[in-house]
Every structure is written in structure tokens, then in C-alpha cells.
Amino acid sequence: MRKTFMLLLIITLLTACAPAAQPQKTVEKFLQAINTKDSTTVSAISCQAWEADALMLLDSFQAVTTTLEGLSCEQTGSDPDGRAIVACQGKLVASYDGELREFDLSVQQYLVENVNGDWLVCGTN
Hints:
This protein has helices spanning 2-17, 23-36, 39-44, 51-59; strands at 65-78, 84-96, 99-104, 109-115, 118-124. The chain has 4 helices and 5 strands, in the order ααααβββββ. It has one domain (21-124): Nuclear Transport Factor 2, Chain: A (Roll), CATH 3.10.450. It is α+β, with helices and mostly antiparallel strands. Residues 4-20 have low confidence and may be disordered. Strands 1, 2, 3, 4 and 5 form a 5-stranded antiparallel beta sheet that branches.
């Protein structure tokens, strides 16, 4: 009984100390929310200082049909302020009046910050 209790205690402590979702997963979720036009998620996973810019990006795709192709993100480093730098591969394809336009996701990197245990997208560079 005591061994079981100790094992459960250790598992609980390890789980509590586990890091929050990885920054690249947050960027993937952000891009998926842009694709599905989900303003609630875009707002929820954006830093307060960058939220208006994130919603403006979302707004630029509101009137078109979009699809994500080959989305894959990874953390490539961190900036001097301690924010994670995340680079993605793939493309966002938008249909404008029947014409397809591709947006290469590798042309910019995302700055992602851990705020109170949650990774938030805080801008691009």
C-alpha cells in the first residue's frame, strides 16, 4: 500500500512539473485557427500586445476559402528576450474568386512566449 502511494505521489509530481505544450504546437494551433477562421482560438493563444495584429491576419482571410498543406513547425531557437523562435513548413492555400493563391509558411518565423505556463504567439520576425 505504501509503495503504491509513493508511486502515485511521484507520478503526480512529475505530471505537475511537466512543461506546458511545446511552442511549435501553439504555432500549429494558431495557423489551424487562421485556416478555420476561429477568432476565439486566435485570441486565446496570442499575447495581449499582439492580439490585434493576429486578429487582423485572421480578418485578411475571412472572405476566402483556405486550406493548410504540409503544416509542420519546429522551435529553431530563442531570441534575447527568451521567447521561442518557431519556423514552419507548408503553405496556406487561399481561393480568391476561383484562383488559388499559395502563402509559403516558411517565409516568416513566430515568436512564442511562455506566459504563466501557457505558450502564446507574440509576433513574427
